[in-house]
């Protein structure tokens, strides 16, 4: 079974939208990937397609005295298409992406490691991945994933009946926290299966999660249902242990000068007027 399904016609639709974005906005798309449940590996048959991309303008866009905007508007550093029933396509300008990279933004790291790639400039992605690893803050990333797990748990998994699919939205960031605690050099992967294989290779909790994945991948939507005690107990123990205090982890240590140099080099290579 393909756990990262992309229908050929949907891939073609995403690629067509990327081509249109390049024409309409006079930009170059450096990479485009799938985010969300299809990238994580637990989509339902009717899950939408969350295409995310990084793009670069021509050099004059970054160098003009007056920003190219409407009256009273800040210069836009995102491109977002109207969301339809199935396609959700949006992206970040390169400078925005690098700013977030300097803050060890986990979302950007996941995009660059997505198992589903629509388009990419290999040299650009390699340079960005190298910078991600240099700026990776295990401590900042740990807090990002812990807060994600905790908020989803409090919002959806505390009653006798729960939003069953939300188990996965808690388990993935919980395991990402544990990944960070064990591996200070490599940010957590996007794919949920990679987290499971390293951190829960076997046992009753893994068996219950595997059963949940089968249901989630086969059902149009997994509605509310009774608590799965083995999974709920695992989540509650993990969150309780994490709430006692963040582990002793290093912060990021990348060089701002090096990031500026990367930005200028990428502009010279990919954004010539």
- In total, the number of strands is 7
The number of domains: 2
CATH class of the largest domain: Alpha Beta
Instruction: Report the major sheet.
Output: 5 strands, mixed
So how many helices?
12
Per the CATH scheme, the topology name of the largest domain is Beta Polymerase, domain 2
CATH architecture name of the largest domain: 2-Layer Sandwich
Uncertain segments of ≥5 residues (pLDDT<50)? none
> In percent terms, what proportion of residues is strand?
5-15%
Question: Alpha-carbon distance between the termini?
Answer: 46 Å
Mean pLDDT: 91
Structural class: alpha+beta
Global outline: globular
How are helices and strands ordered from N to C?
Answer: HEHEHEEHHEHHEHHHEHH
Strand numbers in spatial order across the main sheet: 3-4-2-1-5
Q: What is the CA-based Rg, rounded?
A: 20 Å
Question: Helix amount, in percent?
Answer: 40-55%
Structure description:
The chain has 273 residues and is α+β, with helices and mostly antiparallel strands. It has two domains: 8-136 and 253-270, Beta Polymerase, domain 2 (2-Layer Sandwich), CATH 3.30.460; 138-243. Helices cover 54% and strands 14% of the residues. The chain contains twelve helices and seven strands. The chain has helices spanning 8-25, 36-40, 59-63, 94-102, 106-112, 122-135, 138-156, 166-182, 192-199, 204-218, 229-243, 256-270, and strands spanning 27-35, 49-57, 78-80, 87-93, 117-120, 161-163, 224-226. The strands form two sheets. The chain has a five-stranded mixed beta sheet with strand order 3-4-2-1-5, sandwiched between helices. Strands 6-7 form a two-stranded antiparallel ribbon. A hairpin with a 6-residue loop joins strand 3 (78-80) and strand 4 (87-93). The chain is globular, with a radius of gyration of 20 Å. The mean pLDDT is 91.
